[in-house]
Amino acid sequence: MKLVYTHENRLLVSNAHNLLEQAGIECVWKNEFAASAIGELAPISSWPELWVVNDAHSERAAALIEIAFSSSSLPQWICSQCEEMNEPSFDYCWRCQTEKPESTS
Ligand SMILES: [Zn+2]
Question: Cα 7 from chain centroid?
């Protein structure tokens, strides 16, 4: 088992999880529910973590996550409701679930 991704925002980790599952890479959560149990200012040790079951897949998994989350060609977008910054690959605001604006240009 190897840790490939961790973030305080569990929706980002969920995104990574979906990505790896679609790629056929078996992975598991750790600390999935820790943050909500502790409160909003959770220490880093309670961040949700994404672990790849087979170590041989860890490099590919990390590369997939890197590509998906860097998305350098697309700008990040700012939610019209809560003004939170969102990754370009997100269709909904990670904080308040507001849909991404049709066009940001
Ligand atoms: Zn929002």
Answer: 7
